[in-house]
Amino acid sequence: MKIKEKIKLPDKNKVFYWLKNIIFLAIPFIMMDIVLRVLGSNINYFQAKMVLPNILFNCIWILLIVLISLNLSRRAGRIFYGVLFAIFFIVFLTNCIYYSYTGFFFSFNLILMASEGSDYILDTILNTSPIIFIICAAILAVVVFIIIKFPKSEKSNFRFVLEVVVLFVILHICTPMLLGGANDYLAWDNWRNPRNVYENFNDSNKNMKICGLFEYTVRDFYMTFLKSDEKEDESELNFLENIYSDLTEHNVNDYTGIFKGKNVIMLQLEGIDDWLLNEEDMPNLYNLMNNSICFDSHYSYYNGGGSTFNSELAVNTGFITPVSYVRNAYSFNTNLFNHSLANLLKAEGYSVNAFHMNTGEYYSRRINYLNWGYDNYYGLLDENEYSDLSYELDRELILNKDFYDRMFNSDGPFMHYIITYTPHTPFNTTAGIGKFLAEKIYTDGNIPDLSEEESARLFAGETDYFVGLLMEALEDSGHMEDTIIVAYADHYLYTLNDKTILDKYKETNTNLINHTPFFIWSNDISDIKENGDTQRDGVAIHYTKTNSQIDILPTVLNMLGIKFYDEYYIGSDILDNGYTGFAFFSDYSWYDGNVYVENGEAIKGSIQRDILDSKNTHINELIQKNDLTLKYDYFRKLDN
After folding, report:
1. What are the counts of helices (DSSP H) followed by strands (DSSP E) for the chain?
2. C-alpha of 136 from chain center
3. Residue 1 pLDDT more than 50?
4. pLDDT at position 227, please?
5. Residue 496 to residues 340, 511, 520: CA-CA distances in angstroms?
6. Cα(46)–Cα(384) distance, rounded to whole angstroms?
7. Which residues are 596's β-sheet partners?
8. 258-639 is classed in which CATH architecture?
9. pTM exceeding the 0.70 threshold for the entire prediction
10. Which has the closest alpha carbon to 193: 42, 47, 51?
11. Could you tell me the CA-to-CA distances from 421 to 7, 242, 395, 397, 462 in Å, in that order?
């Protein structure tokens, strides 16, 4: 007998049948993954060691779904295939829309947030590129065809299904190892190591680049909802102990106590980007800024989700949303913040209250503000019933009699945290608050056809109208002389659907897009002397060293003459003589006014290698301090 007759060769027809059906069923999954890769192609993160595990992650997930579907009965296979496709398709579409809108891929932790953005989901969807929906329709058409032509199978092969699952588990355990080893120590560039990124799973964009749609979706769900709390890490606790065991009382400088005893209005300006704050669009706020201490190189920290509340956390506590693990800013409402702005001012005899349009449920504001030490959080929608949209107009924060009385008829010194709202998406005058506001300005029937940019300017004008009312109220209540206003934007205007608008006014290809206004007004600015780091332009004093939201709290405390320890915050007093000046962002990039650093390397400006490495290390340590302090609720440990 010939050798080839002894060897049982595979049936070529059967092999072709299986390959044909595997490819047939895999097509829509491959299409979804490719679309997300193209969508995120401008994300500046790639290492050669990512290629093989990325391919394997996609192959093992797609083959798991396809092979199980093909080895069940036709009816069961159709159902299994359809359900798995539906789950991933919903996540795929969500990622397309969310990434198009924010520049970040979607993470399940975002659905835990009572986000104000939820009111505008429909508008966001409607303003998503039609190409996305055409692609989605094409993918759905392919799936419908697959379901109709689904391969025939009379019975299920459960043994083979079990073998497929076992093989999948083995490959899934092994695949991350191909990313290399994870650093188990604190280093400034841990975030660049693909294995660290994968293990921590704290950067949606980098993780999508590493994992692809299917592994990203499943792991994100696991990390958000299923992963158990980690045990205390001795090395992390030692890191914090080294920081907080040797406290330094903040040094006195030229600006220490210049506003001591004055009332304070913290004015958080929703979406007031630097290009909106001009004499034509916002004359009241522009005049205020030109009679202030102006911090010309200020940047808002943007983390891809809940940026409005992240600003509130930063300014009130001196800390920001964690970078190295997934926790939303609002979720730290049981942490002890005994050195918060409100707590320190209450100790000085101030009444402290917060005022906003929305309810205390959004971002869990009520519980968070009480946790930070505020006497009350007041939301217009909690206090009143409205028959129209007037509560979305910033003017209502002053025109509402209850709010006015609480702000300006109180006894003793006060600190008010006021959050504006009107410059909020969608920016048009055809519906919602845009139409409501336009009717007030132009009257019904005479509303011009405004572009998105023109609508944004119109909305900013409403905030400016509120500022005018605020200044009148200070004058009428006799508080003009004894009050300071700390004004800053919560974030740049990333909520615009037409991103080309930003291209006209900002540097949009780096995190320097986060440049926003920040200034401190007082009626006696003309009497305040500038120092070596400032220069006067008319009445205004301009400070040019780079800073961000994390620096607002220690700067204000020093100007109010309130003693504090430098180690209790991750930011610094901007006006301190030793302040060097920088801002960092959620991807570890940073800017010091001369050099912009991304992925650990200077891509704008030049800097010596040793200085670059030193600053990279310093910023990494600040982020670790921030993240671990919040993780371990460390001020509570210190208090005990």
Report:
1. 23, 15
2. 27
3. no
4. 85
5. 33, 17, 27
6. 52
7. 591, 604
8. 3-Layer(aba) Sandwich (3.40)
9. yes
10. 47
11. 77, 41, 10, 10, 10
